[in-house]
Specification:
By secondary structure, this protein is mainly α. It is built from 1 helix and no strands. The longest helix has 34 residues.
Length: 58
Amino acid sequence: MLIPGENGHSPFPWNLPLWQPDHAIFFGVLYLVLLVLACGLGIVFMKAIRDAKHTAGH
């Protein structure tokens, strides 16, 4: 059951009924996976920039 004004179809935390255990678990895992992917891509991007600065051509 949703609180009036909540639709359950939005990935944003301010529109989600996180008080329900199934929603809290699903979106907790979803945001954890997105955080891990973003951190991994950030590390790869920073290493690529560092390697590009330290190489002197081909």
